[in-house]
Structure formats: C-alpha cells, structure tokens
Known about the structure:
Oligomer: single chain
InterPro entries: Com_YlbF, YheA/YmcA-like_dom_sf
Protein name: YlbF family regulator
Pfam families: Com_YlbF
Amino acid sequence: MLADDSPVMVKARELCAAITEDSRYLELQQQVEKFLDDDSAKLMYQSVHERGSELQQKQRAGVELGAAEISEFESAREELLNNPVARDFLDAQGELETVQRAIGKYVGMTLELGRVPTADDFAEADSGCCGGGGGGGCGC
Length: 140
C-alpha cells in the first residue's frame, strides 16, 4: 500500500495536489506568509505564547496567579488579537488544523470501518456511540 506507485499513494498525492490548488488553501497560505514576513507580529505572538505557557506552568505547579499578571497577559493577548496580521495568522492556523483533523478522521474511520464512512458514521462517532470510543449506550 505504501509503495510510491501504489493506488493508495497515487491518490494521496492527488489529494495533496487538490489541497494545494484549492483557492481557500492559497488564501490561508498567504495569511501565514504575511505573518512570517511581519517581525512585529511574530514577536508579539511569541511573547504572548511564552507568557501563556509560563502562566500555565505556574497553575499546574499550584501557584496562584496574581490579578496583575493575569491582567497583563489578557492585555497583551487582546493587543495580539487586534493586530490584523496576527489575527489572520491565528485564524488561518486554526482553519488549516481543522482541515488536517477532518482528513485524518476520515482516513482513520476508513481504516477502522473497512469502508468509506458515511455521514451517519461521523454522526455516531461525534455522539460518542461505538466509533466515538465510549459505547454510550448505543447497543455496542
């Protein structure tokens, strides 16, 4: 199945080509590139990301966060989200991750079910029945 010329790998390359040729994907890539070219937006993003990680580590360690440091973080985060380049990057990143998860879920369910999943299969998985990993009283 994984041989370079196998039908599965040929279709995988076709899927990848379809993604990279999609107009929405091209727009998202432009937003990412615009962000990567904007040193100010990147620095702002990095600063907020690092500060958020520090605060999470403190919380996990049981340290109570002070109102001032929470306020400072929220202010920096708001400033980041008010930057159109950074905001577009975050939106693009989220949308690309959603596409990646959806395609992964589709392929994963295909391998699990041994057939192409239907809309009902996805609905069942999302409701927690059988394929959703919990049984959930669905007669599984």
